[in-house]
Amino acid sequence: MTYSDITYEQIGAVVRICHNRPQFANSESENLLAEIDDVLDRTQRDDSVRVLIIGGVGKHFSSGHDLTEGMAKRGKYTPEESWMWENEHYLGNAMRIRNYPKPTIAQVQGACIAGGFMVANMCDLVVAADDAFFSDPVVHSLAAASVETLVHPWVMGTRKAKEFLFTGQRLSAAEAKEWGMVNHVVPRAELEDFTLELANRIALAPPFGVRLMKRSLNRTADIMGFSNSVMAHFETHILSTETAEHHKLRSGGMDASMKTAKTRSN
Prior knowledge:
Blueprint: E1 6-11, E2 14-19, H1 30-44, E3 51-56, H2 67-74, H3 79-98, E4 104-108, E5 111-113, H4 115-121, E6 125-129, E7 133-135, H5 138-142, H6 152-156, H7 158-167, E8 170-172, H8 173-178, E9 184-186, H9 191-203, H10 207-223, H11 226-240, H12 244-251, H13 254-265
Parallel strand pairs: 2-3, 3-4, 4-6, 5-7, 6-9
Antiparallel strand pairs: 1-2, 7-8
């Protein structure tokens, strides 16, 4: 397959794909997410692939969903249309990453914001460069209840998730590791090699045993309420994008509100 918005390479038993829109800070277009979905579908059925890495080309992992494209294509959607579209493309993509049967590793450098945060944290492991930072300024910028998939309390704990989301702060790679969200922090120059080495170690394990182990770990999280809480939040998110607060901020200009949120998070 030929992809335009992601890169694709297979290195032995490891496939590495990267957001490939560096001119747009790797913002996630509809097509980019569709290409990730295609990789998830194909490689889960390919026995030669044992581990999947998701990264980003250039300076940043991802600045989040492509809001400019979203406003142009879906700015006049009804709540029903927004629910249908985001359920499939945003929530759906995130859950397909989470439920992918083989181990996944997020390889993160630079910005990992909002939708990018969501994609990275639906992976099984996160390796961050020392220049990486994490942010979800959506409450401040859009008066919306975070992104579509509220993975935050599950990867950093409820207290820290509240602080992170209420303030819209930027979280450094070192802080993210301290909070338990990131597995490893490495120098930027070593990020790709370190992540690939980790993936290769995982790939040595018997593939069906690893698949069953991941299935059991995901089931444990589901017994604790993961999937139900994520699905419940999605409806809250859609409601929050139909409030007077949200429409007031949006009518004032998407770029201006995002700039304000960025200033607050610095």
